[in-house]
Q: What sequence folds into this?
């Protein structure tokens, strides 16, 4: 065998080993993704992302992912990348609670970067640029767009339901000064564990919901409106009696959220508080009869 033939043989072996190595890495990553997915199907997980001064909540359920709000900017992309398998670039359902910038801006980034099956929203309009882009992307990508209202339900699989408690009516194309009180409020139910997700609803709406739902005990509450003084209702808290309250809030934000009076009321009622500015992303891992809370720090 001559030097040229020997050199060709060595080169071919190197290429073969390189291809085998690449295939092994791909197979390993796919295996990891499958393991992750199977684990996710066994649990219901609610991720309260730390996205600064805004809301972004990812529900991972047997039938897929539900993203409720997207925070004020691109941080939600990083959080999804850390949470979902690297092969998963699809969100089954996005819910926009109301079109304020600290809830919609990040969702525009999601529509640009992920495949989305459906969006649900109130239909309330807003003059901000993000809302115009939101509407354009939904139309351009032909994403199913559903106007949500009280009484609607989403089946998340294995008996897990996402129920809509507010708003009471179809608000499509309406322009409303206080969009906070048009916020979609969701009741997430699985067995003996219940979670209420409130958007930025304020005291009058919370009082109304308490009057309409007497005697319901929940385990986890997403504290309304970042823990502001406008988002506290003692009647609501005494009606639903949550074990814990999660406050999505940015560190040293200019609004002074969460309000100290809100924290005092939660403390007096024995409700444990988890704050994203202090604990980072907060994760509730739920099965039918129990749950546990994990925090980033």
A:
């Amino acid at each position: 065998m001559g030097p040229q033939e020997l050199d060709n043989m060595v080169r071919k072996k190197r290429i073969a080993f390189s291809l085998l190595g690449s295939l092994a890495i791909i197979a390993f990553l796919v295996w990891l993704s499958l393991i992750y997915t199977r684990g996710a199907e066994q649990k219901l997980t609610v991720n309260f992302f730390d996205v600064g001064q805004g809301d972004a909540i990812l529900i991972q359920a047997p039938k897929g992912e539900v993203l409720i709000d997207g925070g004020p900017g691109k941080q939600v992309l990083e959080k999804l990348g850390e949470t979902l398998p690297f092969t998963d670039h699809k969100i089954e359902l996005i819910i926009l609670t109301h079109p304020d910038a600290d809830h919609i801006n990040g969702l525009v980034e999601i529509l640009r970067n992920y495949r989305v099956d459906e969006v649900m929203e109130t239909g309330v309009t807003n003059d901000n640029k993000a809302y115009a882009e939101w509407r354009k992307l939904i139309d351009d990508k032909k994403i199913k767009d559903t106007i949500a209202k009280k009484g609607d339900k989403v089946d998340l699989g294995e008996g897990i339901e996402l129920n809509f408690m507010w708003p009471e009516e179809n608000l499509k194309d309406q322009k409303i000064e206080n969009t906070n009180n048009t916020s979609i409020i969701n009741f997430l139910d699985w067995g003996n564990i219940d979670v209420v997700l409130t958007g930025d609803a304020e005291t009058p709406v919370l009082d109304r919901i308490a009057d309409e739902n007497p005697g319901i005990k929940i385990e986890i509450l997403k504290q309304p409106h970042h823990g502001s003084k406008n988002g506290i209702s003692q009647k609501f808290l005494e009606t639903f009696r949550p074990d814990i309250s999660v406050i999505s809030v940015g560190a040293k934000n200019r609004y002074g959220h969460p309000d100290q009076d809100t924290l005092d009321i939660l403390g007096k009622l024995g409700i444990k508080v988890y704050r994203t500015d202090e604990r980072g992303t907060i994760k509730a891992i739920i099965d039918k009869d129990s749950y546990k809370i994990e925090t980033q720090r």
